[in-house]
Amino acid sequence: MTHEIEEEYAAAQLRFALGEAVRSRRQELGLSQREVGRRAGMTQSAVARFEGGGTVPTFPVLDRLARALGLELRVELSPQIRSA
């Protein structure tokens, strides 16, 4: 795999994981996509795209979604673990 393909794959995995986390929390709270969107200042379709991993998340969007879901956004940078 080329470096570009690996980076795109990693980005897609991150988008999917973030979308899954939002969907899971939304369902845990019994909220609709429309309600989360209202709380976050987004449309229902924008929430659906986010949950499906179809958008590149920005920090402001992540923060708005976190607040809408009663969560705190935390970003952590840590050393990579490289496998041989």
Sheet with most strands: none
Derived from helix and strand composition plus strand pairing, the structural class reads mainly alpha
Mean pLDDT: 94
Strand content: under 5%
Task: Spell the H/E element sequence.
Answer: HHHH
Radius of gyration: 14 Å
- The total of helices stands at 4
E-strand count: 0
Judging from the principal axes of the Cα atoms, what is the shape?
Answer: elongated
**Terminal residue distance:** 16 Å
Helical amount among residues, as a percent range? 55-70%
Low-confidence stretches: none
How would you characterize the overall build of this protein?
This protein has 84 residues and is mostly helical. The protein is 63% helix and 0% strand. The chain is built from 4 helices and no strands. The chain has helices at 3-29, 33-40, 44-51, 59-68. The chain is elongated and about 45 Å long. It starts with a helix and ends in a 16-residue tail after the last helix. The model has no long low-confidence stretch (mean pLDDT 94).
